[in-house]
Design goal:
about 55% helix, alpha+beta, elongated, 5 helices
Length: about 150
Amino acid sequence: MFLMLLVFWLIFNGKVTTEIFLVGVVVSAALTFMWCKVFQIKQCVFMPSLKKVWRYLRYFGNLFLEIIRCNLQVMRLILHPQEEVHPQLLTFPVKLKKDSHKVALANSITLTPGTITVAMQDDSIRVHGLDASFLEGIEESDMMKRLEKMEEDL
């Protein structure tokens, strides 16, 4: 219901700006919440807690910063051809329980320049790094720690 209301809000406004979108999200969420309360529908819509929303925002913010940082590292390798590149393949264990969080981690690794997820097997991920420096500390990365915290909420 939330998505339907949001889509109608955007269609009837005729243009999409940040303000219109944010107001639409708030109004659609409020109407959906009231609808569920008035008609006493328990499974009406997925309404995440503020804590969950904050954790997801922090995860995606961290991912954005990692993408920028890795872009700069790749640019340094390209602009300084005298530096020797040492590609590396690394397999590391993953403590995440949910498959969706494992996939999110693998996709996040692939999104960051200089690394690509080659394989996912049970409780491990194999990653190829353009240079060995890209794989340093990947086993204890902030992204994995944030995903572990998200699993604690479940």
